[in-house]
């Protein structure tokens, strides 16, 4: 009989196993895995509560223990990946706090995965939708779904599910009219062995339609203002001189409260903080007088919200020049972590900002010697795994767009695998709720004892 036990290795538990099971055990192997591999290049410590423990003023006594626990979990990741100080090719480990880039996790993203998790109610990676007959169906969005793995990082404009279905339909001599849910149902009946393939496309046809419905109804009008505020210039490259003029149409439009809060935050971030008088006006306009913590509590992350005469602006890292890169007009912002990844690979990280960094292997950027055996298939994932790694850990949650950046940099560098992790993964609304809750006192748990009569 084979058995796997998931447990925290305490002396008491181990002694019990040794006492009662020892004579039956032929082989015992201990796997040091205190993390969750969410995706092929993404891991979490499965600890959403770490955000409050680290940043809430009401949980200052928990901060040290939480950080120690996260550090121990990162160590188990390194051990599992066989990364150790004595290794031939040492990995680079960079740790940053959530406050280092407050913009990325609250922007409306238009790449498939990030957009879906932001706009569509997806819980535990499970997407629920209704079929043509009205019955509710579920689909798990993970890497077992090859179509999901292929499409998740694409811009929504490039996710062409109907085109993929038409290709299958044409190959099987089916009429290639307009693709509908009922049409897919008929296709599945006629081609039983293609059922799984078509079922996946049915899921993503529903999901992309959900995303586009939300986009056309509310998000499209928000995106231009958000991008202008985040980037600091419009689509023509003209600098935004008056951010308030960019924000005002968003506030005047009947958008939802969360959307307006996100826009207000982007406005404040663009100014590196605003006056208390101006902030109060914004809060009144959004009508969150009783919930101003959505905005004020960003200070707990070290993000400037209110400026004052004695206020010294937070030094911003210089961004990489991406003016020559082709982008969609509503997707011009690049996560700061992507700059960090690329700078790390090219050994361009500033020592003032990263005083404890070690120099990356020369082979990462092609300046070092690489064996001929490694060159002929440098782009394969297995090949990268045999080379160097860049591991980035974000304290306080990562967004789906930051996860995407790890794959993009890995694909472009090829000689290095970038792995990104955090205490947990956050959507914009989840992060805002976590921010608001920071100022709430910790509720004491009631305990009771059952007495046998």
UniProtKB/TrEMBL annotation:
The keyword Transport belongs to this UniProt entry's keyword annotation: yes
Single GO biological process annotation from the record: vesicle-mediated transport
One Pfam family named in its UniProt record: Sec1
Region (Disordered): 352-383
Domain of life: Eukaryota
Listed Gene3D superfamilies: 1.25.40.60, 3.40.50.1910, Syntaxin Binding Protein 1, Chain A, domain 2
Keyword Kinase in record: no
Coiled-coil residue windows: none
Record keywords, A-Z: Protein transport, Transport
Assigned protein family: Belongs to the STXBP/unc-18/SEC1 family.
Annotated protein name in UniProt: Syntaxin binding protein 3
Organism: Salmo trutta
């Amino acid at each position: 009989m084979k058995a796997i036990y998931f447990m925290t290795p305490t002396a008491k538990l181990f002694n019990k196993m040794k006492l009662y099971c020892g004579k039956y055990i032929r082989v015992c192997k201990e796997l040091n895995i205190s993390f969750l591999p969410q995706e092929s290049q993404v891991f979490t410590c499965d600890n959403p509560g770490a955000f409050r423990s680290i940043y809430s003023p009401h949980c200052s006594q928990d901060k040290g223990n939480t950080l120690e626990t996260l550090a121990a979990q990162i160590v188990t990741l390194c051990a599992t990946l066989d990364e150790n100080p004595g290794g031939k090719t040492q990995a680079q480990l960079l740790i940053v706090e959530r406050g280092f880039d407050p913009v990325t996790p609250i922007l409306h993203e238009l790449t498939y995965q990030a957009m879906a998790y932001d706009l569509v109610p997806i819980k535990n990676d499970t997407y629920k939708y209704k079929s043509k007959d009205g019955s509710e169906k579920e689909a798990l969005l993970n890497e077992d779904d090859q179509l999901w793995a292929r499409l998740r990082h694409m811009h929504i404009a490039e996710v062409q599910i109907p085109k993929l279905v038409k290709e299958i339909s044409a190959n099987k001599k089916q009429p290639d009219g307009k693709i509908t849910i009922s049409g897919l149902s008929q296709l599945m009946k006629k081609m039983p062995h293609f059922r799984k393939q078509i079922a996946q496309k049915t899921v993503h046809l529903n999901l992309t339609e959900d995303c586009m419905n939300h986009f056309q109804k509310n998000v499209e009008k928000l995106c231009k203002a958000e991008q202008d505020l985040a980037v600091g210039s419009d689509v023509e490259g003209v600098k935004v001189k008056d951010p308030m003029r960019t924000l005002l149409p968003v506030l005047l439009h009947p958008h939802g409260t969360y959307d307006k809060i996100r826009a207000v935050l982007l406005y404040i971030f663009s100014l590196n903080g605003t006056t208390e008088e101006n902030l109060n006006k914004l809060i009144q306009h959004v009508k969150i007088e009783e919930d101003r913590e959505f905005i004020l509590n960003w200070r707990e992350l070290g993000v400037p919200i209110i400026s004052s005469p004695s206020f010294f602006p937070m030094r911003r890292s210089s961004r990489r020049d991406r003016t020559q890169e082709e982008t969609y007009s509503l997707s011009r912002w690049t996560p700061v972590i992507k700059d960090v990844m690329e700078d790390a690979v090219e050994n361009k990280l500033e020592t003032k900002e990263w005083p404890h960094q070690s120099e990356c292997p020369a082979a990462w950027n092609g300046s070092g010697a690489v064996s001929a055996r490694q060159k002929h298939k440098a782009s394969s994932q297995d090949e990268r795994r045999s080379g160097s790694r860049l591991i980035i850990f974000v304290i306080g949650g990562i967004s789906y767009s930051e996860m995407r950046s790890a794959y993009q940099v890995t694909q472009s560098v090829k000689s290095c695998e970038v792995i990104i992790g955090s205490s947990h993964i956050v959507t914009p609304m989840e992060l805002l709720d976590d921010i608001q809750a920071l100022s709430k006192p910790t509720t004491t748990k009631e305990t009771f004892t059952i007495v046998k009569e």
